[in-house]
Amino acid sequence: MTSRSRGTSARGRVLIAAASATALLTVAACGGSSGGSDGGGDDPIVIGISLPLTGDFSEPGKGVQRGYEAWAQIVNEDGGLLGRQVELKILDDQSNADRVVADYEVLIAQDEVDLVFGPFSTRLVVPSARIAQEYGMLFVEPAGAAAEVFEQGFDNLFYAAPAIADDHYNNLADYILALPEAERPETVAVAAMDDPFAQGTAYGLRDKLAEGGLEVLVDEVYPPNTTDFSPIAAKIADSGADVVIGGTQYQDAVNLIVALQQLGYQPELAAFSTAPTNPEFSAAIGAKTEGILSPTGYTPDAAWPSNADFVERYTEIHGNPPGEDEANAYTTGQVVAAAVEAVGCAEQGDCQQQLVDWLHENEVDTVVGPLTWDATGKPQGAHLIQQYVDGEITIVLPEDTAEAAPIFPKPEW
């Protein structure tokens, strides 16, 4: 490990960093002595992270932050990694790709962090993964699911979730196309944020339904900062499409759904990526969530060995169970921790390649299930499909893991 000097930090202490006016430095339970040494000694393992805590992706970005911080707290309570406490250094990239590049440059080259975790959103993952690759750093990330992430030639990147964006809706597509012909919807309307992840989820489902014979009547793309959805909602409502697909993050989904409801549009099926899994979604939409669908890589009720402990301890910290963003961040920590403990190191230099090689060759048990990856870092699993049933977000597909039967057609909203 590169030698460095640090002052002793108290367990759980939160500091404001001077790296930038908006940078946030979270020290998650260090408890070590100051002054680095080649073997790490009692120094904390410092993990550098850049997240969109402000800007377009701030809502899910804060969820990822909660997941990372919960992981650090729980790991430290259980003795740390390699017998050392972990310390998170988190910078706010403001949802800006140029800023995220600068952040990881600072974290790796200037601050000399031992490890890095990835940011939120494909827009920020791709440029930051390039920086990590240039410095030879392992790069496990919780939210870069678009296909383009895995087409860049990265050999150090691993996505900490069951499936990439294009495959998130596979179980829903199979369900729709298996309906009796007389019951099957015939037409589709799509609205997607100009974002690789959001478009990937929407277009994966759109294309599978189109291949199955459904006609796409509306196919709109909007900028990430869109707030007025009345023109797009009018096109969708005027089309009368049986199925509406939203390639969305959070606030855009809320605004689009409200606009559609105000126009009296009543689709037979409504699917929106990401937003319905957010704890604030129901309050934002009101009592009109029934039947809304969303893919998810996580449920707090999953029986995976580490999940019950995670849910219990996360709930103790925050007063509510974790959502998908929190779980994917926690999974990122689990994946990196598994490699660190197996290889026996956590530092810049040759250690990083050892960590990468170990993950390419091994399966890791996580709160989202066992994960393995292909050579591009693409996970080899599938997402669940959730739906609001009796006011609660519930797993409805695939059938062997369903908590309730799918509702089709969707009740009026």
Count the E strands: 16
Order of helices and strands: EEEHEHEHEEHEHEHEHEHEHHHEEEE
Please count the helical segments.
11
Tell me the distance between the termini. 57 Å
Query: What is the alpha-carbon Rg in Å?
Result: 21 Å
How are the strands of the largest sheet arranged? 9-8-10-11
Low-confidence sequence ranges: 1-38
Main sheet characteristics = 4 strands, parallel
Work out the helicity level: 25-40%
What is the percentage of strand-forming residues?
A: 15-25%
Which structural class matches the secondary elements?
Answer: alpha/beta
Shape call: globular
Mean pLDDT: 90
Structural descriptors:
413 residues, alpha/beta, four-stranded parallel beta sheet, disordered N terminus
The gist of it:
The chain is an alpha/beta fold and 413 residues long. The protein has 11 helices and 16 strands.
Protein architecture, described:
With 413 residues, the chain is an alpha/beta fold. It is 34% helix and 17% strand. The protein is built from 11 helices and 16 strands. It has helices at 58-77, 97-110, 122-134, 170-177, 196-211, 230-239, 251-262, 281-285, 307-318, 324-343, 350-361; strands spanning 14-15, 25-26, 45-51, 86-92, 115-116, 139-141, 157-159, 187-193, 215-222, 243-247, 269-272, 293-296, 364-366, 369-371, 384-389, 392-397. Strands 9-8-10-11 form a 4-stranded parallel β-sheet, with helices on both faces. A 3-stranded parallel β-sheet has the order 4-3-5, with helices on both faces. α4 runs parallel beside α5 (196-211) and α10 packs across α11 (350-361). It is globular. Residues 1-38 have low confidence and may be disordered.
